[in-house]
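Researcher: Quick test of sequence recovery. Tokens follow.
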């Protein structure tokens, strides 16, 4: 098995890194696979990349796993301009190609929502299309997520990219009608549900091994 997925979300801060690491831990611990996580663009001072590296059991140079890292916690195109750089999608493709054969499973985590701007003319959607990978959608369960999810799926399908599955991630402890919201999405989406992750105070990807299914 050699498979790679592009992981996106319905918005920023919906738990993409949590789900990405959860899938990596699931594949390595339950399926005994060699796994590797990439996050081509990182903004801010979070530890997303460290968590992906910790969840990977294959080593690769960080310059390939995370070719662009900006300290300002703003949109990636703005952060890159502030640092005097331009995010080059072809360079990201090169980095991905350099490491994709090292593992049985590679997960490429996008930044922000699917159409987050990366430079003056290209977005995360263009990157996903360039890589040509099946997409996994992380749905942050909170008010407004129904419309955000349907719009995200519509945008992915407009790029003729297959959607391998979606994960429902509860973001708010006191959100009303959580189960009904997931049920509505299941009615609308003809896509496999890979997991329904309930709210956690201190979430960690390794705790999701029994809660996530791998895409077919």
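Model:
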């Amino acid at each position: 098995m050699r498979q790679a997925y592009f992981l996106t979300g319905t918005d920023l801060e919906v738990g993409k890194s949590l789900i990405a690491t959860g899938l990596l831990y699931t594949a390595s611990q339950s399926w005994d696979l060699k796994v590797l996580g990439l996050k081509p663009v990182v903004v801010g001072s979070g530890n997303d990349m460290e968590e992906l590296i910790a969840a990977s059991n294959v080593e690769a140079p960080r310059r390939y796993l995370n070719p662009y890292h900006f300290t300002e916690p703003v949109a990636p195109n703005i952060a890159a301009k502030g640092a005097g750089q331009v995010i080059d999608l072809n360079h990201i493709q090169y980095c991905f190609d350099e490491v994709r054969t090292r593992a049985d499973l590679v997960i490429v985590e996008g930044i922000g929502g699917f159409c987050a701007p990366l430079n003056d003319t290209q977005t995360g959607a263009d990157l996903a299309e360039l890589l040509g990978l099946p997409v996994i959608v992380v749905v942050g369960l909170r008010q407004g997520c129904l419309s955000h999810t349907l719009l995200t799926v519509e945008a992915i399908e407009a790029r003729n990219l297959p959607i391998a599955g979606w994960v429902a991630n509860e973001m708010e402890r006191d959100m009303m009608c959580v189960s009904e919201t997931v049920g509505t999405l299941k009615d609308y989406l003809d896509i496999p549900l890979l997991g329904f992750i309930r709210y956690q105070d201190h979430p960690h990807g390794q705790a999701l091994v029994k809660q996530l299914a791998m895409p077919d």
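The mean pLDDT is 95.
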